[in-house]
Amino acid sequence: QPTIGVLAVQGDVREHLHAVQQAGAQGTTVRRPRELAEVDALIIPGGESTTMDKLVRAFDLHGPLRERLAAGMPAYGSCAGMIMLADRIADARPDQQTLGGLDITVRRNAFGRQVDSFEEDIHFAGVDGTVRAIFIRAPWVEEASESVEVLARVEEGPAAGRIVAVRQGPLLATSFHPEVSGDHRVHGLFVEIVRNYLVEGKQ
Ligand code: GLN
After folding, report:
1. Strand 117-124 and strand 75-78: pairing?
2. pTM over 0.90
3. What percent of the chain has pLDDT over 70?
4. Which of 38, 48, 180, 188 fits a disulfide with 23 by CB distance 3.0 to 4.6 angstroms?
5. Cβ atoms of 102 and 166 closer than 8 Å
6. Number of domains the chain contains
7. pLDDT per residue over 150-175, tens digit each?
8. Per-residue pLDDT tens digits for 111-126
C-alpha cells in the first residue's frame, strides 16, 4: 500500500486524507521536511494558494518540495494545489511563488465573481461516466504545453471548453475538488499513478 502525504499547512486536508483511504492507500499529513521524506507521493489540497505559498516557505518546505518534485515524486493538486503545481500563474500576486512541475499557465479565480462556486458533471479521461466537479473560486488552465495531457474540460456555460484537469507524467491536477464530492475515482486514478511509479522505480 503506497503512503500518500497530504500537505497540511493550510486547506482541506482532512477531506483528502479520507478520500485517499477510500481509494485504497494510506494517507498521512506532511508539515515538515522529515515527514515529506517518508511519503511515496503528495497531495496538495484546495485552500488559498498565496497563503499556502507563504506557509510552505515559512515551514522550510519550499526547497524540499521542489527537490522531491524534480526527482519525479507523484503529486496531485486540487484547486489551490493545482496553482502550486503550475509553472506559471497568469495573474500572480507580486511575490507569489509556485512549486511548479506542470508546464501550464493557470489563472486564479478564473470563473469570475458572479460564479464563485458551481458544480457540473463532466467527462474525465480515465474515469467511466461523468464526475461531479465542484468548483470553489477555482482556477482554470489557460495554457498547457504539448507534453501535458488534458483530462477534462468545462462542458457547459460561458466557460465551456476551459481546461480543468491535466496530467503530465506523475503529476495530476484538477481545478475542482473531488475530495468533497464523496466520489473517490479521481483519487483512485492518482493511487494508480503512484502504484505504477513505485513499480517502475524513480526515473
Ligand atoms: N482561489 C484560491 C486560490 O487562488 C483557490 C480556491 C480553492 O482552492 N478552492 O488559491
Report:
1. unpaired
2. yes
3. 97
4. 188
5. yes
6. 1
7. 999 999 999 999 999 999 999 999 99
8. 987 668 999 999 999 9
On the CB side of 37, CA atoms within 13 Å amount to 5
The ipTM, to two decimals, is: 0.95
Separation of CA 51 and ligand 1 centre (Å): 10
> Ligand 1 pocket check: which of 43, 49, 52, 119 to mutate, most ligand atoms within 8 Å of Cβ?
49
pLDDT of 96 over the 90 cut = yes
List the beta bridge partners of residue 124: 127
Per the listing, cell 502550486 goes with: 84
Question: Residue 89's closest CA among 76, 98, 101, 102?
Answer: 98
Residue type, 131: V
Would you list which residues are annotated within the binding site for L-glutamine?
47-49, 108, 136-137
CATH number at residue 13: 3.40.50.880
Rounded CA gap, 42 and 7, in Å? 7
How many CB atoms neighbour CB 79 within 10 A? 29
- Which of helix, strand or coil describes residue 39? coil
